[in-house]
Description:
Two copies of one chain form a homodimer.
Chain A: H1 9-17, H2 22-32, H3 37-43, H4 49-61, E1 65-69, E2 77-81, H5 83-86, H6 89-99, H7 118-124, E3 135-141, E4 144-151, E5 154-159, E6 168-171, H8 174-181, H9 187-192, E7 196-199, H10 201-207
Chain A binds a DNA duplex through α3 and α4.
Amino acid sequence: MRSYNQYCSMARALDVVGDRWTLLIVRELLTQGPCRFSDLRRGLPGIASNLLADRLREMEAAGVVVRHDEPPPIAATLISLTARGEDLGGVVRELVRWGAPLMFTPADGAEFRMHWFSLPARYLCQDGAPDEPAVTVRLGDLYDGCDITADGGRVDVQPCSTERRPDAVVTAPPQLLVALFTGTTPLRAAQAEGLVVDGSHAALERLLPNTGKGTDR
Amino acid sequence: MRSYNQYCSMARALDVVGDRWTLLIVRELLTQGPCRFSDLRRGLPGIASNLLADRLREMEAAGVVVRHDEPPPIAATLISLTARGEDLGGVVRELVRWGAPLMFTPADGAEFRMHWFSLPARYLCQDGAPDEPAVTVRLGDLYDGCDITADGGRVDVQPCSTERRPDAVVTAPPQLLVALFTGTTPLRAAQAEGLVVDGSHAALERLLPNTGKGTDR
DNA sequence: CTGGATCCGGGAAGATACTG
DNA sequence: CAGTATCTTCCCGGATCCAG
């Protein structure tokens, strides 16, 4: 992108990350951790491969990402955020927050990846039972999803891991997921509309917003 | 801009404000308040007038800005942020924060407007003397600047107003201003390099970061 | 003067095919 | 798997012109 050529903190930031796709690449690396080129392509439906390559070069030059080889068994190149890249978390968070209301009016035929949901999940979820033992709920699966853990009042969202044994695995169409986690649709109603909970019901309910009617005293 | 066509909060946000210039227009309206078309042009050096007109149309359609006529004496159209537009303050703040380190390596021949500095000023300034009466420091002038007020521990940055009588008026080249407010250069040294303080010295010093040597016990 | 509209050239983005 | 090459399309930038 051409520089704005302005001596302004924000304009300089946009010179670096204001290009089309750049911040979505940061989204992928923040939600998925280190990725291979093909991982990024899967998480960025619609991007042309040459553009992705261009952006990665620019981001590497700007010190936002680094390339490094995966340990010997496999021979692939991993791409990670640098510390400077991780610092973009605040920008991403505010964009997610601002865009959240737009999720109620979905565009027709839009692509969806379950792991994208890990961003709003960070602030939609809460631990409704801080005194109980920790639970983990998996949204989606190992190939595209995230693990949400509630433990002692804290909620943590991470990429799916084979190391974790989730207490519940949830599958649902995206809009229904939004309705459920915003408290618009209660769990029962969501299940009637196609949401599937495999495992502990209670684990999922612990994460959902209180709609006021059912917290036992 | 073409939609990313992704059912993702952040991608939807970027569909709306990810276009070139859009967030800088928001910056202008946040720092300057309601603006006329020509005010925006002055604050956005480099933008083509047709692009500005295009962006304003798109932003109006998206509910980010509104147009309204100025009261009778003058016949001009004012452009303001809607509540939804004001909500972009968080995104702007995080971009400013992330871009701040880039201010130490200025691009050559970059444009500068004093009122841009009001964004980083919001978190670079602090009230070093909460118990004293309120003071106001003006950066720049009525046509391009901002008023910084310290009052009872709170710091407030606003567009210049004819209603206010600043205790000090500061003029300086942009890089020197950055050095001063980040604590890199002490006031004395800055003055030696071309910074001019018209009025109360102490008012300005009250806003500057403590570099540790001079807070009276 | 303000607030644009119009036209045009160049370059970035997009689509697709191909390769080490 | 990780890109490159090529072609097309369309957005951006710059200049100019115009109506109220």
